[in-house]
Amino acid sequence: MKIKTILSGKFVFLLNEETGSQSEEMTMSFQTADDTTISGCQNESSDGNVSNFGLIKEVFTRFTGVGVFYPNKKEAQRIGIVPDIEVKPTILDIQQGKDEVFDRALQFV
Question: Is the pTM of this model over 0.70?
Fold first, then answer.
């Protein structure tokens, strides 16, 4: 199922390992539109509601209590969003202040 595109042109969404929750849900939604490309590295896959669970005294854990799927019924949890253009920044890039995900997206556009 495709969503109706109101805007025209190419759209590139940037993704990294910290993309999660609402930003992951929005990225999944935009992926269904035409002319949409995802650039970056696979994300943390933390979508869905969060349930808190106390184990003992002050020890708590959290988990997702629902399944999250793409419109084609492909599972999203534990997998995350797989980018169309995979970019994995290196430690050197980060140390030098380079944003390889953004730079690669600009090259694509």
Answer: yes
Distance CA 38, CA 28 (A): 10
In a domain, 46, yes or no: yes
Residue 40 makes CB contacts below 8 A (sequence gap 6+) with 14, 15, 16, 19, 83, 85, 86, 87, 101
In contact, 104 and 87? CB cutoff 8 Å: yes
The C-alpha angle with vertex 74 and arms to 88 and 34, in degrees rounded to 5, equals 70
Q: Determine, yes or no, domain membership for 2.
A: no
Question: Total structural domains in the chain?
Answer: 1
pLDDT tens, residue by residue, 62-94: 877 788 887 778 888 878 888 999 999 899 998
Per-residue pLDDT at 5? 60
What is the residue range of 58's domain? 11-108
